[in-house]
DNA sequence: TAGCCGTGGTT
DNA sequence: TAACCAAGGCT
């Protein structure tokens, strides 16, 4: 849930989920569409599908327990480099290298002397991060949470609070006079009129309905037929939407969402 | 690896 | 106020 989503927005939904589905087995027993519905407006709803799929995998292959090693975690759907390392470290105490957007920014500044990290993680960046992690597993875990928190609370993206920073005196960016970012242009996401916007609107209609929705209700969301069909098709392909007979649609009820 | 995938608070 | 950006993953 926290992937690309601020803690403050995740917290209430997370509590609802744990009250409803206390264990992976509980979640796996419900339809994937219920996960998508309970995801609400957190965004990137494919994460809900993957979380459900991960629950199914844990239920089927490990008696409903969460794997305790980074390697096993990586095999779960929706669990990538960051999440596997974070869970392995924070939940199970494994000594690994946790690199999220906060860590990348802190190291870019403190070590490399640049305002922002590159648009996408580089090999060199991960090597540097790994080299900074303490050898002791307990200290390594403390290190990771500390760097993440420093990035989130002090070394923030927009207006860093350098006057409050505990490592300002050894920060390469600070020592260089806080030069502005010179690297390759950063993405910048368009929104108005995009497929993402329409997919979100389509899914919002389906989430709000307890009964199958007729195609006509979905068509009302856009006059662009080409885009409309493309988005609906992609939602079906993603397993987020299930087409029924008589031109009706619903959130996936079947057990095997991709 | 670059592009795609949502949403809403912050600056 | 329009951008920016957030505990990324997948193809």
UniProtKB/TrEMBL annotation:
<dbReference type="InterPro" id="IPR004036">
    <property type="entry name" value="Endonuclease-III-like_CS2"/>
</dbReference>
<dbReference type="Pfam" id="PF10576">
    <property type="entry name" value="EndIII_4Fe-2S"/>
</dbReference>
<dbReference type="GO" id="GO:0034039">
    <property type="term" value="F:8-oxo-7,8-dihydroguanine DNA N-glycosylase activity"/>
</dbReference>
<dbReference type="GO" id="GO:0006298">
    <property type="term" value="P:mismatch repair"/>
</dbReference>
<comment type="similarity">
    <text>Belongs to the Nth/MutY family.</text>
</comment>
<keyword id="KW-0479">Metal-binding</keyword>
<dbReference type="Pfam" id="PF00730">
    <property type="entry name" value="HhH-GPD"/>
</dbReference>
<dbReference type="GO" id="GO:0006284">
    <property type="term" value="P:base-excision repair"/>
</dbReference>
<dbReference type="GO" id="GO:0035485">
    <property type="term" value="F:adenine/guanine mispair binding"/>
</dbReference>
<keyword id="KW-0411">Iron-sulfur</keyword>
<dbReference type="InterPro" id="IPR044298">
    <property type="entry name" value="MIG/MutY"/>
</dbReference>
<dbReference type="GO" id="GO:0000701">
    <property type="term" value="F:purine-specific mismatch base pair DNA N-glycosylase activity"/>
</dbReference>
<keyword id="KW-0326">Glycosidase</keyword>
<dbReference type="GO" id="GO:0051539">
    <property type="term" value="F:4 iron, 4 sulfur cluster binding"/>
</dbReference>
<dbReference type="GO" id="GO:0032357">
    <property type="term" value="F:oxidized purine DNA binding"/>
</dbReference>
<dbReference type="InterPro" id="IPR003651">
    <property type="entry name" value="Endonuclease3_FeS-loop_motif"/>
</dbReference>
<feature type="domain" description="HhH-GPD">
    <location>
        <begin position="1"/>
        <end position="153"/>
    </location>
</feature>
<keyword id="KW-0227">DNA damage</keyword>
<dbReference type="InterPro" id="IPR004035">
    <property type="entry name" value="Endouclease-III_FeS-bd_BS"/>
</dbReference>
<keyword id="KW-0408">Iron</keyword>
<keyword id="KW-0378">Hydrolase</keyword>
<protein>
    <submittedName>
        <fullName>A/G-specific adenine glycosylase</fullName>
    </submittedName>
</protein>
<keyword id="KW-0234">DNA repair</keyword>
<dbReference type="InterPro" id="IPR003265">
    <property type="entry name" value="HhH-GPD_domain"/>
</dbReference>
<dbReference type="InterPro" id="IPR011257">
    <property type="entry name" value="DNA_glycosylase"/>
</dbReference>
<dbReference type="InterPro" id="IPR023170">
    <property type="entry name" value="HhH_base_excis_C"/>
</dbReference>
<dbReference type="GO" id="GO:0046872">
    <property type="term" value="F:metal ion binding"/>
</dbReference>
<keyword id="KW-0004">4Fe-4S</keyword>
């Amino acid at each position: 849930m926290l992937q690309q989503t601020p803690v403050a927005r995740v917290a209430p939904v997370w509590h609802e989920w744990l009250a409803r589905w206390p264990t992976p087995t509980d979640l796996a027993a419900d339809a994937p569409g219920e996960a998508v519905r309970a995801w609400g407006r957190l965004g990137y709803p494919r994460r809900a599908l993957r979380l459900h799929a991960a629950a199914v995998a844990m239920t089927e292959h490990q008696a409903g327990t969460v794997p305790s090693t980074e390697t096993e975690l990586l095999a779960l759907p929706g669990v990538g480099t960051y999440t596997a390392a974070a869970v392995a470290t924070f939940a199970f105490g494994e000594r690994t290298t946790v690199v999220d957007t906060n860590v990348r920014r802190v190291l870019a500044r403190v070590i490399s002397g640049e305002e922002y990290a590159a648009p996408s993680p580089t090999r060199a960046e991960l090597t540097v991060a790994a080299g900074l992690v303490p050898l002791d597993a307990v200290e390594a875990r403390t290190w990771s949470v500390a760097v993440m928190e420093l990035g989130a609370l002090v070394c923030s993206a927009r207006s860093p609070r350098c006057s409050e920073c505990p490592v300002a005196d050894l920060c390469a960016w600070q020592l260089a006079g806080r030069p502005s970012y010179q690297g390759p242009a950063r993405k910048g996401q368009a929104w108005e009129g995009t497929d993402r916007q329409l997919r979100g609107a389509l899914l919002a209609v389906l989430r709000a309905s307890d009964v199958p929705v007729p195609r006509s209700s979905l068509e009302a969301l856009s006059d662009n037929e080409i885009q409309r069909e493309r988005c609906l098709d992609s939602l079906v392909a993603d397993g987020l939407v299930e087409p029924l007979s008589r031109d009706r649609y619903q959130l996936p009820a079947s057990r095997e969402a991709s």
